[in-house]
Specification:
Blueprint (H helix, E strand, L loop, with lengths): L1 E6 L6 H8 L3 H13 L3 E4 L7 H4 L16 E4 L2 E6 L2 E6 L15 H17 L3 E3 L5 E3 L1 H15 L5 E7 L7 H7 L3 E3 L2 E3 L4 E7 L4 H16 L1 H6 L18 H14 L3 H17 L9 E5 L2 H12 L8 H4 L20 E2 L8 E2 L8 E5 L4 E7 L5 E2 L4 E2 L4 H13 L1 H6 L3 E11 L5 E6 L2 H4 L9 E7 H10 L2
Length: 472
């Protein structure tokens, strides 16, 4: 299987992709059309009224390399997918040395896949919508669940009853009397040989064979990907899935078996097998792109930061043993921020707006009596002595100051001091780094604002993701 390694939001030409995919320009265009329908790829040309240096997540744009007359393609997706027998790996935009990961045992890739799978499992989001409403499915997530289930419980099995002579099971008296010759003593039969019952695994059972065949066929199709993820491919059957009938027939039989199977582990195995057939075999196999990944990796970055930094956003006052005179103990920290009041000119009774300021991360340390406000940004900021680029906008900066102002009375009442007000951005380096700050003089002049500036903090993604994966 060919492996093609790419990076999120990096511009690629048709010619470059055709060399990577080892096919003609025309074939690459067909691939890109399919991927475009799934929101995996975007096409940019000269009609886009944008500054490419601001839009693309690369250090600089070489206008000679990027022929905007023909257009360039961006993969707005992070993860892995299969297309026409090739395994495509798209790394996050912040990984500078992503091509070296192959020679490091794909450590970064394995961690990223684990993070995506955990996030999607928590959010129950195993797929996404394409432009035409068609669903795509992260088939590798289900594949790994199937393998994990197999290593825990083995192949699906049904027992059958057999009889044996002089075994240790229950005596089958009817069979014994019909087929054994007794010794008669004092008009009473004495049996020296008797039939007993025994339960054994039925290796010819339809679902046992189907399970073995499915795991084998998945292993054959995804062999290289499984090896990358350190999952041992399985060879359990010489049968083919086509031997078991069409998909509708298989699903019908699984539903029948589910209705009479009450062992939890076996019930779960059947549901996984059914889900695989329902999801992966509903597509035309010539068009399908099998994948694990997301087009919204920024959500994963935000979630990982929220979990690792112990976001108290949804905790209540009573949970944190705090108070606030303007509300009750069951109020969430997120609800402390006041709502806008709307007044009709002829009526002084206010209408409260449904929405208000919503901080990204609120971290409260009750022991140290500190309060921090963070905004996780999936940005690749450039901030040095020569320039600033790809930075948060004025609205983001303003909101960080307003969040602090909104919680001012709450902090005073609970004797909490402002520790940090910061933007959190990913880096592939190994240490946390504060690279600078941003400020607005209009807020610096306010005594109520203790954070005279908003820090720009780069967080090491490998450590953040490791902590996220360890969390419950």
């Amino acid at each position: 299987m060919r492996t093609v390694i790419l990076r999120e939001n990096e511009p690629y030409s048709i010619e470059y992709l055709s060399r990577l995919f080892q096919c003609s320009n025309e074939q690459v265009i067909q691939y890109l059309k399919s991927l475009g329908l799934m929101n995996i790829v975007k096409h940019i040309n000269k009609t886009w009224n944008i500054d490419l240096n601001d839009f693309l997540d690369v250090d600089s744009i070489d206008s000679d390399t990027l022929n905007l007359e023909k257009g360039v393609y961006l993969f707005t997706y992070v993860g892995m997918f299969l297309i026409d027998g090739a395994c495509i790996i798209v790394y996050p935009k912040y990984l500078k040395n992503y091509r070296k990961d192959k020679y490091n045992g794909y450590k970064d890739l394995k961690q990223i896949v684990e993070v995506i799978i955990k996030y999607q499992a928590n959010k129950q989001d195993f797929g996404g919508d394409t432009n035409d409403g068609k669903e795509y499915f992260n088939i590798l997530s289900l594949t790994l669940d199937l393998f994990d289930n197999y290593y825990k419980y083995g192949l699906y099995r049904n027992e059958m009853d057999i009889s044996e002579i002089n075994g240790y099971g229950q005596i089958l008296w009817n069979r014994t009397m019909n087929y054994s010759i007794p010794y008669i003593k004092e008009n009473r039969p004495i049996y020296f040989d008797y039939y007993t019952s025994k339960k054994v695994n039925n290796f010819d059972d339809f679902f046992h064979r189907l399970h073995a065949c499915l795991l084998t066929e998945i292993s054959d199709n995804l062999n290289d990907i499984l090896l990358i993820l350190e999952v041992e491919p399985l060879k359990l059957s010489n049968e083919k899935l086509n031997d078991f009938g069409d998909v509708d027939h298989i699903i019908q039989l699984i539903n029948q078996e589910l209705s009479q199977q009450f062992v939890t582990s076996r019930h779960n195995t059947l549901k996984l097998i059914k889900s695989y057939f329902e999801k992966s075999y509903t597509y035309n196999q010539s068009d399908v792109v099998s994948l694990v990944g997301t087009g919204s990796f920024h959500n994963i970055w935000e979630e990982a930061c929220s979990v690792v930094l112990n976001n108290n956003f949804d905790d209540t006052l009573i949970d944190l043993k705090l108070t606030y005179k303007k509300t009750h103990y069951s109020t969430k920290i997120s609800k402390i921020v006041e709502q806008p009041k709307w007044y009709y000119s002829r009526d002084e009774a206010p209408h409260l707006a449904n929405k208000t300021l919503i901080p990204d991360i609120i971290s409260i340390n009750n022991e140290e009596k500190t309060f921090s406000i963070y905004d996780a940004k999936y940005y690749q900021i450039i901030l040095n002595d020569e320039q600033v680029a790809k930075q948060p906008g004025i609205a983001d900066i303003t909101k960080q100051y307003l969040y602090e102002l909104a919680y001012k009375e709450f902090m005073v009442e609970n004797k909490l001091s402002m520790k940090e007000n910061a933007f959190l951005m990913p880096t592939d380096e190994d240490e946390k780094k504060i690279i600078g700050y941003v400020s607005l003089d209009m807020f610096r002049a306010l005594d109520e604002i203790k954070s005279k500036s908003i820090k720009i903090i780069l967080l090491p993604t490998r450590k953040i993701y490791a902590d996220y994966l360890r969390s419950t």
